[in-house]
Design goal:
There is one protein chain. This protein has 4 helices and 8 strands. With 132 residues, it is α/β, with parallel strands linked by helices. The protein has 2 domains: 59 residues, Signal recognition particle alu RNA binding heterodimer, srp9/1 (2-Layer Sandwich), CATH 3.30.720.120; 66 residues, 2,3-Dihydroxybiphenyl 1,2-Dioxygenase, domain 1. Strand 3 and strand 4 form a beta hairpin. The protein starts with a strand and ends with a helix.
Length: 132
């Protein structure tokens, strides 16, 4: 089994797609006005309209209601990403901080309030975990 994507349901697909394109630097691929994907490395972040929920199961997901999942992006220099996003991101939860497990992390919220962690491994152990 392979985890291939995470999907965020939103009431404003264009706004969320613009946000994730800016954060990742990756242009989205649009399938319909209600569904787009940002393919970043080995994973895909899918963004779907509330109108797509009924295709899955009525009321299966609610937009802007997540308080438990963090979308994470591995980057080469989290401090540079922070500098680049300062004028764009409205809600930084934390400034770049080195975590006890060895990642330097920047935590922010997307326009729907979902948590996003942008991080760079900085200790030898953390770097080794992400070496390929």
């Amino acid at each position: 089994m392979n985890l291939v994507s995470i999907r965020i349901i939103t009431a404003d697909v264009a706004r969320l797609v613009e946000f994730y394109e800016r954060v990742t630097g990756v242009p989205a691929t649009w399938s319909t006005p209600d569904f787009a994907e940002v393919r970043a490395g080995s994973a895909t972040l899918a963004i779907g309209s509330t109108r797509t929920v009924a295709l899955l199961a009525p009321d299966a997901a609610r937009p802007a209601d997540n308080r438990s999942v963090i979308v994470e992006f591995l980057v080469g220099d989290v401090d540079a990403v922070h500098r680049d996003l300062t004028a764009f991101v409205a809600d930084f939860v934390t400034e770049p901080t080195t975590m006890p497990w060895g990642n330097r992390s920047l935590l922010l919220r997307d326009p729907d309030g979902n948590l996003v962690n942008v991080f760079t491994p900085v200790t030898p152990a953390a770097v080794a975990r992400f070496a390929r």
